[in-house]
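ok trying this again, last paste got cut off
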Amino acid sequence: MWAGDHKIPILGYGEVDIKARQPTGGTRIMRLYNVALCEEIVCNLVSLRILRQKGYYWDNKPKTTLIRRSDNSILCSLEEKHDQFVLEYIPEDISQAAFFTRRNNYNTWTKRRPQAGDAQLWHLRLGHPGPQALEHLVNSSQGVRIKGITTVECDACGTSKAKR
């Protein structure tokens, strides 16, 4: 990647969660995909062009600058730091260890909400298992809830098992 007249190596690509501010004062986790890791750049950059492709836009009409969805609802508010608009401001005095541990909302003490869905959804999520496997999933794992009965009428499974 080029920054001015300097070539900076991209060390990898992945996802990152940032804490974006809400106009009400709270924060929400916003996941960014296809993020390039460049250790030599001291700030995170978000492409307005890609945000616009995904249906978001920059609204600077109100007193607080916002990023809005295409239905005009508010995704997050931006704050101004060092004459730049930022989604998340991380002070320089935060250690790297604190930076990474504050990202994890779920750990061994705080468990994630159970993933709920009907039998058809779990059947598709897991690669078309049978009803016995779905019952076993609910009984032997944490954080799985199936609403309704575990039998599934799947066209793809019926087609694959057809004799003629």
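PB: full thing came through this time. The chain has two domains: 2-101, 115-161.
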